[in-house]
User: What shape does this take?
Amino acid sequence: MTGQERSVCRAMAGILLLSFLIATYYTGFDPMEVLLHLGEAWTFFSEDFLPPRFQLTPVILESLAVTAALAVSSATTAAVAAAFAAVLGSDLLSPSKALAASVRGAATFLRNIPTLVWAFILFSSLGVGTGVGFVALFITSFAFLTRTFIEVIDEIPVGVVESLAAVGAPFWVRVFQCVFPACVSGFIAWYLYSLEVNIRSSTVVGMVGGGGIGMVLLSYLKSFKYAEASGVILMIAVIVILVDRLTDLLRKKAAA
Assistant: This one.
C-alpha cells in the first residue's frame, strides 16, 4: 500500500468515526448500554426462543403456501407488466424521449417507497387481506423490474434494432422478433432475483395484514409463544435459503 493509499484509508476511517459519533449523539444511542445488556438479551433468547418448537400443522403449511403464492404471483405478473413498460421506458425503443423519461421517473418513484410502506397505505385504505398484500408486492416488484429491464434492453446493440427499422419492420415486430429474444436471459435472471426478494417481503407484508406465514408468526409473538415463533422463523429461513439456491442455479442456466 502506497503512502497516498494509506492517507486515503486514514481519512475514510476518520470520516466514518466522526459520522458515527455525530449519529450516536444526535439519536441518543448509547453503545455501552447495549453492551451492558447483552447478557439479558442472551438469557431471553436462550430461555424463551431456544430450543425452537416446530409445529407442521395444517394452518402453518397453508400459511407457508399462501406466502409462497403471494411471492410467485406478484413477481410473475410484475415481470410481464414490466417487460412492456421497459420497452416504452428504453431510450433505444421508446417512441418519444418524454415518454421514456416519464416511465423511468415513475418506476424510480415507486421503487424508492418500501414495500412495507405500500402495505400500510393499502391496508389503511382498502383493508387487510392477501389481495391487498399482493398489490403491495406487485407495485415494488413492477417498479424494480421496470428499471432493471430497461437497463437490459439498453445493452442491445443499436445496429440490430436499426436494421429492422430500416427494412420497414413495425414497432412491435421489432420488439417481439429482436428485443425480447435478445433480452430473455437477462429478464429471467432479474425475475428470479425479484422472486427471491418477494419471498422475504411477503413474510413482512403478512405480519401487517397480508396473510400467510407472517400473520402466524405475529400471532405467536403476541401470545408470547416464543419457541413456536422461533420454529416458524427457522422454517422461513430454510425456505428463503432453498429459494436462493434454486434461483441462483436457474440464473446460471439462463446466462449459459
Observations:
- The mean pLDDT is 80.
- The longest helix spans residues 171-210.
- The chain has two domains: 3-49, 58-255.
